[in-house]
Amino acid sequence: MHTRTMRTTIEIKPEHRASLLALAARRGQKGFSQLVTEALEAYLKAQQGRGGARKRALMLKGALRPKEAESLRASTAEIRRSWR
Predict the structure, then answer these.
(1) Across the chain, which distance is largest between two alpha carbons, in Å?
(2) Which of 51, 48, 18 is nearest to 35 (CA)?
(3) Of 56, 17, 15, which is closest to residue 35 (Cα–Cα)?
(4) How far apart are the two ends of the chain, measured CA to CA in Å?
(5) For 32-81, how does the pLDDT look when each residue is reduced to its tens digit (9 = 90+)?
(6) Which of 18, 29, 39, 44 suits 55 as a labelling partner, its CA being 20 to 30 A distant?
(7) Alpha helices per DSSP H over the chain
(8) CA distances (Å), 19 to each of 15, 16, 28, 36, 66, in order?
(9) Dihedral sign, CA of 69, 72, 78, 80?
(10) Mean pLDDT, residues 22-31
(11) What's the confidence (pLDDT) of residue 59?
(12) What is the pTM of this model?
């Protein structure tokens, strides 16, 4: 399967460019386009996952009775205080 690609220009920090070139060289690649593609795909997939998790969480709104919700809030607050 052939995927269409397009060229574009992005601005990156010199140190990021150097790191990408070094990583690409270790992988036997001449440039870092494949690395950028992999990073973009991972980022976009993670963003899609976040949206789904948010929707699932919102669907739970009202699932607890008020007394259960208050108990959970109190327990969570106590746990957070002990983290510090």
Answers:
(1) 61
(2) 18
(3) 17
(4) 53
(5) 999 999 999 999 988 887 777 778 888 888 888 899 989 999 999 999 99
(6) 39
(7) 14-26, 33-59, 66-83
(8) 6, 5, 14, 12, 52
(9) negative
(10) 95
(11) 86
(12) 0.55
